[in-house]
Amino acid sequence: KPIVVSGIRSTGQLHLGNYFGAMRNYVRMQEEYECYFFVADWHALTTHPDTKELENSVLGVLAENIAAGLDPEKVTLYCQSAVPEIAELYLLLNMLAYQGELEKTTTFKDKARNQPENVNAGLLTYPVLMAADILIHRALYVPVGKDQEQHLEMARNFAQRFNHRYGELFPGPQAFNFGAELVKVPSLDGAGKMSKSENQLATLYLADDDDLIRKKVMKAKTDSGPTEPNSEMPDYIRNIFGIMSLVSQESTVEKFRSDFNNASIRYGDMKKQLAEDMVAFISPIRARAQELRRDTDGLRRIMERGAEAARESAQRTIREARRLVGLEYLK
Ligand code: ATP
User: Fold this and answer.
1) Where are the alpha helices (DSSP H) in 167-233?
2) Which residue of 71, 83, 148, 277 shows the fewest CB atoms closer than 10 Å?
3) CB atoms < 10 A from the CB of 221, how many?
4) For the chain, give me the number of helices (H) and strands (E)?
5) What are the backbone angles phi and psi of residue 79, rounded to the nearest 5°?
6) Residues 174/45, Cβ–Cβ less than 8 Å
7) Which member of 1, 111, 219, 272 is catalytic?
8) Where L-tryptophan is bound, by residue (predicted)?
9) Does any ligand 1 atom lie closer than 6 A to the CB of residue 148?
10) Is 222's C-beta closer than 6 angstroms to any atom of ligand 1?
């Protein structure tokens, strides 16, 4: 079976973007691939140094993934910090990553702008740790959203440099989505993507209650509507159509699309419909996650079992990496 790896940071509650960019693909891949999915708690420290909520967030990410359909019997679910081999590979890869390329990474520039008081080296080397997460299992496919495309390209570069310098060990991992393109779920205010830690009122969380979902959807940015048939669609309206096509029936989306083209669309009606379809989509996941979250010991056991399996795979890689790099003299 081809090997698959992906992770989600424990930086808060999961949202629609995480679901459609990542989790939905995890669930679809679990039958036919060897899957390693992890909660990225080390990655969380780059932007969330306060760890009071960390454990809660780790367990929440796990519960929401299982609620979305992941089966712990079929996939290896673990916490990043429980697999120290990842840190060792990260160290080795750091010698093959250059300051210039790391400084040019879009996510680094964005995050550095957001937290000028804490531009730490972990933030700068985030793509290196992400490459280590993937390469530690010698994965071929990485189901991620569009925001991770550049990181994947860097992971391929680091893998290639390692292979070239020390000998063939890593395949070139590819970003993966079942559709043709990687997904980006836009935020409801028309600016940027839905995200765990930014823009919380413009992001729909899998834990939001029905009224909050309705309120957020009704607040999504619209205008008074087109005045002429076949007008150009503004980006923020295109985003609402995009979000609608994720959770509503195709016929519903088509109806509003033709209303738009006839210049007869009523955005209030469209948002009401979207709100109800969104409630129908989110509420069963939320209910399952709440139930799972109550069984903290059960969640811990799942992660302990997962960490054991993940470490076995990681140790195989790190032994090879040490040998190829020439670090075997102490063994
Ligand atoms: P944070 O705001 O803390 O950076 P995040 O919401 O961006 O968090 P990550 O943990 O960085 O989430 O990413 C987890 C997965 O979800 C990744 O595969 C990422 O590509 C995907 N993802 C995150 N946001 C979106 C989005 N709006 N649309 C599509 N995919 C997304």
Assistant:
1) 210-218
2) 71
3) 17
4) 15, 5
5) -100, 135
6) no
7) 111
8) 133
9) yes
10) no
Pocket-testing residue among 39, 41, 195, ligand 1, by greatest number of atoms within 8 A of Cβ: 195
For residue 95, the CA-to-ligand 1 centroid distance in Å is 27
Q: Which residues contact 110 (CB under 8 A, 6 or more apart)?
A: none
**Single-letter residue type at 243:** I
Q: Give distance in angstroms: CA of 15 to centre of ligand 1.
A: 8
Structure tokens at 140: 């071929």
CA angle 58, 61, 63 (to 5 degrees): 105
Residue pLDDT, tens place only, 202-240: 999 999 999 999 999 999 999 999 999 999 999 999 999
Distance of CA 192 to the CA centre of its chain: 15
d(CA 11, CA 80): 14
Distances in whole angstroms, Cα of residue 13 to Cα of each of 8, 36, 69, 86: 11, 21, 17, 25
The pLDDT tens digits for 269-306 are 999 999 999 999 999 999 999 999 999 999 999 999 99
Is residue 193 annotated as part of the catalytic site, yes or no? yes
Q: How far apart are the first and last CA of the chain?
A: 32
**Token digits of residue 82:** 């429980």
Instruction: For each of the domains in the chain, give its residue range(s) and CATH number, in order of start.
Output: 3-185+296-325 (3.40.50.620), 208-290 (1.10.240.10)
pLDDT at 179: 86
In Å, what is the CA distance from 27 to each residue of 19, 71, 215?
10, 8, 29
Predicted-assembly ipTM surpassing the 0.95 threshold: yes
Q: How much is the pLDDT for 69?
A: 97
CA distance 229 to 178: 34
107-165 pLDDT tens trace:
999 999 999 999 999 999 999 999 999 999 999 999 999 999 999 999 999 999 999 99
Say yes or no to pLDDT of 330 above 70.
no
Best residue among 70, 142, 147 to mutate for probing ligand 1's pocket (most ligand atoms within 8 Å of CB) is: 147
Beta carbon of 188 within 6 Å of any ligand 1 atom? no
